[in-house]
Amino acid sequence: MTSIAEIPPVVQSARAHGLKAVFQHARYVMRENPVTGFAFLMFLFFVLCATIGPWLVPHDPLASNTAQALKPPSALNWFGTDQLGRDIFSRVVVAARLDLAIAISSVLLVFAFGGLSGVAAGYFGGWTDRIVGRICDTIMAFPLFVLAMGIVAALGNTVTNIVIATAIINYPLYARLARSEANVRRDAGFVHAARLSGNSEGRILLMHILPNILPIMMVQVSLTMGYAILNAAGLSFIGLGVRPPTPEWGIMVAEGASFIVSGEWWIAFFPGLTLMLAVFCFNLLGDGLRDIVDPQRRT
Amino acid sequence: MTSQPLLEVRDLTIEFSTRRGVVKAVQRVDLSLAKGETLGIVGESGSGKSVTSYAVMRILDRAGRIANGAIIYSGIDVGAATESEMQDLRGREMSMIFQNPRAALNPIRKIGRQIEDVLIRHVQATRADAREKAIGALRQVRIANPEERYSAYPFELSGGMCQRVVIALALACQPRLLIADEPTTGLDVTTQKAVMDLIVELTRERGMSTLLITHDLGLAATYCDRVIVMEKGNVVESATAEEIFRAPQHPYTRKLMRATPRPGARLCDLLPEEPAPVDRAAAVNVTSDTSPLLRVENLVKEYPRKSTAPFFARFMKRGKFKHPPPFRAVTGISFDVMRGETLGLVGESGCGKSTTSMMLMRLIDSTAGKIVFDGTDLATIPARDFALNPLRRRIQMVFQDPTDSLNPRYTAARAIADPLLRVGTIERSKVRTRCEELALLVGLPLDLLDRLPHQLSGGQKARVGIARALALEPDLVVLDEPTAALDVSVQAIVLNLLQDLKERLGISYLFVSHDLHVVRLLCDRVIVMRSGVIVEQGPTAKVLEAPEAEYTRELIAAIPHPPFAA
Asked: To the nearest whole angstrom, how far is the Cα of A21 from the nearest Cα of chain B?
């Protein structure tokens, strides 16, 4: 790949021009589609929670106080307290960091591996295509959540393994999408033109085809991000991956579930609501992202 | 004309709301169409000719609306009609033939079924006799073996056949108004003639009125009674076909007429004003080297054919099973391209001209034969490895579709710079300067260099494509229908540019085209191909004025000739 120093001035000036255009375009998209704007605000909110949340929360998320156990939401404990008297609001905010970290790293992982192998499969066809296709088929032959459970159980109960498991079950989505998008473009005029310009096959793949399928991949990233959060929370819910007392939305819902029958609804409700909002936010974001990264819509 | 016109459009203004505010696509257009009349609307892209016809059918995009004016179809105000009234009108009273026949047909439904659907929707047939009537409709558009074709799918038919099916669909319910939106764009010239003749004959027979929308003045003048010329949403001229062809009034019409390649015109005649006399002294002297730059000998390209034997039969008779003979796209052709020469390669779609140019460019491997370029046989170098061969620099290509051939995410400068960065010999810091030189050479304004392809017009994209092909100073440039996707006035400019560049840089062209008029203007020699074989070759004037092969004569006869033109 080209390093920055190698990029000729032509490209650099174009890039500066492009960055400004991206901001202008983003502003336009927000105004045109307020739902996207709302999703972006929500996304920013979650990111803030994840980055500076731990310093802002009113209580220590791990400190138990049995005197205050199972208190309903009040001015002191906004979301109430759990069976050990820990402040649920503080725990929900702090948990954002772990949940987002799992989701983002697993999506990045699968984006890199799934995207690249899919593009190669679509562009080269033949054996590459067959191998990638069979891997996808194998993964998709399992019920995905059960597969994720199996992977975490087999590899060990750690956060890293949750990330890997989540990446593996999302692999077919990325590989197949990238494959079909690359396949459509492999005989496009600009690919022939690139070949005539003396580009090697690998370079055509990385510099010509890959950038063109990024828009659609971005949408996929955003959609699977929501799915990845759900998956991580789901694994924790059944006791795999993150362990108590670490604040994590899935564990918190699992812990609160048994208290719902006795009327202490807030323990499971607030982490569940946050989880739902996060997934909702990423799904809305997908549509907005596509509009921003697609140059066809930038005029 | 005293009788009430079938269709009357008064003071029509159509607006589109876009992100840059409201754009007027059509402004104050008046037109009327009498019963049995054929009216041509001629204009270049963006002239509002299609939008006008969409408004008549009321199938505008959601962003578009009729801002002012009225469309009266035999007493019915189309603008005020309800949607269900319009649904009855469309198909039964007025119907439309679209530009791309394949896109207009449902790809997964048998064509006979699709005709039946229309008949039944408009209560022209019952389930019992629909099949019979559909076959009748296919027979009317001269489809051979209509009973058999009834159950064909669109992908099994050629482009011309598909367009016939679309015509059958449009005429199935005996409408009184037919709107044909560029019905023959994308079809071969002989197919175009067959399709247009069919449309005219069928509509005359039934006393129908036709609105023919086209960018081709010659076509409109040949087949229409009256012609309207549109420019940027305005009607600039309206007259009978003969008047408009003999004595065009408006400067825009004159400009269009000038730009249309025609017999007897020189290349520089196509431009709106007389260009400054070319300084011949500045032209590079063609080298005295008389050996051909490119020599092609017995070039063959075969594609394996799919076996027609049933799947199981292949397994059962494993030993005895024979592969079918491969399909020969190009069957042993030989020709030379001299230094500084423009050689035309003419033929209809499927004749192997594109395959030939792809083999010369080393984009695909040839099956047999030699491609000797300046002493080296290129056919021995596999297409895969050719990217890094030093000869890559000396053979370049300008593609047919300027939009498709530019990477949508590369700016114009980046696209032009790509060959320089990959196999160029100049330093990276000088690439930008070289890009600017090339942009000036092809007449591309420098401030457009940082734009992305979708921000450029068709002509500008064509210039970027040409600049990219010339960036490495090649000896041979293959031009694969470089103007097929362009408007005539832009085509005129691009053709002149190509000629000018050839004289200044002393390069050779292989010009692949289906348009004989364009070939006449640009080429020194012509090769006519059909089904992978060269049927005729020789100097341009000789081949086009006194063709020897029957096929060449057919091709020349199929070009639309206005009956009253010389």
From this structure: 11
CB proximity list for B505: less than 8 A, separation 6 or greater: B284, B470, B473
Interchain pair B414, A10: CB under 8 A: yes
Q: Is the peptide bond before A245 cis (omega within 30 degrees of 0)?
A: yes
- Give exposure, A18-48, as e/b (b: 16+ Cβ within 10 Å): beebeeebbebbbeeeeebbebbebbeebee
Nearest to B386 by CA among A200, A190, A185: A200
Is B468 in contact with A193 (Cβ distance < 8 A)?
yes
Which amino acid is residue B38, in one-letter code?
A: T
Q: Which amino acid is at B164?
A: R
Which whole-number Å values give the CA distances from B442 to B147, B397, B436, in the listed order?
54, 15, 10
> B24-43, pLDDT tens digit by residue?
888 888 888 888 889 999 88
pLDDT digits (tens, 9 = 90+) for A185-218: 888 889 988 888 888 888 899 899 998 888 888 8
- By C-alpha distance, the chain B residue nearest A11 is B414
- Candidate from B361, B405, B432 with C-beta closest to A189: B405
CB-CB under 8 Å, A32 with B387: no
- What number of other Cβ atoms are within 10 A of residue A133's Cβ? 16
- Which one, of B213, B237, B240, B212, lies nearest residue B226 by Cα? B240
Which residue(s) pair with B537 in the sheet? Answer: B527
All structural domains of chain B, each given as residue ranges with its CATH number in brackets, are 101-174 (no CATH), 281-558 (3.40.50.300)
The model's pLDDT over B151-179, given as tens digits with 9 standing for 90+, comes to 888 888 877 788 888 888 888 888 889 99
Question: Which residue in A27, A30, A197, A206 has the most chain B C-beta atoms within 10 A of its own C-beta, making it the best mutation to test that interface?
Answer: A197
- Least CB-CB distance to A188: which of B392, B404, B454? B404
Q: Which among A193, A200, A299 has the least Cβ separation from residue B387? A: A200
Tell me the pLDDT band of A9, cut-offs 50, 70 and 90. Answer: very low
Main-chain dihedrals φ then ψ at residue B300, nearest 5 degrees: -130, 140
Element (DSSP H or E) covering residue B257:
helix B251-259
Rounded Cα–Cα distance for residues B156 and B531 (Å):
19
Tokens of B206: 């039934």
Residue B280 confidence (pLDDT): 44
Q: Where are the domains of chain A?
A: 7-297
With b for 16 or more beta-carbon neighbours within 10 A and e for fewer, the B533-555 pattern comes to ebbbbbebeebbeebeeebbeeb
Are B408 and A296 in contact, with CB atoms under 8 Å apart? yes
For residue B91, give both structure tokens. Answer: 């198909």
Q: Which CATH number fits domain A7-297: 3.90.1200.10, 1.10.3720.10, 3.30.70.270, 3.30.70.3450?
A: 1.10.3720.10
Angle of CA points A222, A113, A172, to nearest 5°:
65
Q: A-chain residues within 8 Å CB-CB of B363?
A: 192, 195-196
Instruction: Give this prediction's pTM.
Output: 0.78
Partner-chain residue, chosen from A199, A211, A299, that has the shortest CB–CB distance to B387: A199
H runs (alpha helix) in B353-451: 353-360, 412-423, 431-442
pLDDT at A8: 42
